[in-house]
Each structure stands twice: as structure tokens, then as C-alpha cells.
Amino acid sequence: MNRVNLPIQNQDGSRVDHEVRYWWNEREAHVAVELPEQTIEDFDYDFWGALLKVRTKLESIGAALICNGTSIDVYPSGMCLDMGSGLRAYRLILFRKPFLVNVFDNADWNRYATIGAQRKRYAM
User: Fold this and answer.
1) How does pLDDT run across 104-123, given as a tens digit for each residue?
2) Residue 116: how many CA atoms within 13 Å on its side-chain side?
């Protein structure tokens, strides 16, 4: 099991670090976010899918997890999902070569995007 502390942005714009756990359980990728009043957890076939499900739950309560996987500049390829279990995705910057980042890392360049905005940007 992996544990990281990542900021969660609340509706008022404040950010507070919370523990995020992610692990592989035989055939499923799990992601859990520890909030003071509850744990938000879900699973999918890969970490990207599990992260999307957890993000959906967080967005429904007005919270936003801030990490590479929630940045408008980051999206996985099919190979990232199939071969890498969705743990890494490409950071895509105009006029630059894409490079892989861990979706659960946090960097200064993160630009949070909702799930819908992220999907719209990379829709083919």
C-alpha cells in the first residue's frame, strides 16, 4: 500500500493536506482519501479509473484533490492504462515532448481541472 499526503481544495479555496492511499488488490486498483469526517474510497481496473471515481465523489461534496492526475495538462494513453495500470500518465504541453508523471505525485505546475474539463480537452 502506498501513502501520500496531497492537498484537497475546499469550496472556499483553502487547501489542506490529507492522506491518500492507493494499492493493488489482486485484480483491482483501489484509491482512498482520508477526510476528517469520512473516508472516500473506490476501485476500478486501473488506478486512473479508481482515481476518477474518487474525484467524482469529492467533486460532489465541493472538494478537489490536487495531484498530477487532476491537472488539465495530464492524461493517460491507452498503453499507460493497459501496461502501467494507470499509475502514470502523460503531461502534455503545447510544443513540447510529452513525458510520463506519476498521477499521485504533486508538482508546482499542477493546474486543477474537473473530470469533464480534462476529458473535453483530450477528446478525440
Assistant:
1) 999 888 889 999 999 898 87
2) 1
Task: Give the total residue count for the chain.
Answer: 124
Amino acid sitting at position 15: R
* Cell output for 6: 496531497
Closest CA to 67 of 23, 25, 28, 101: 101
Q: Which long-range contacts (CB under 8 A, 24 or more apart) does 98-105 make?
A: 101/68, 101/74, 102/68, 103/47, 103/48, 103/51, 103/67, 103/68, 103/69, 103/74, 103/76, 104/2, 104/4, 104/6, 104/20, 104/22, 104/47, 104/51, 104/67, 104/68, 104/69, 105/4, 105/67, 105/68
Sheet harboring 88-91: ordered strands across? 74-75, 88-91, 99-102
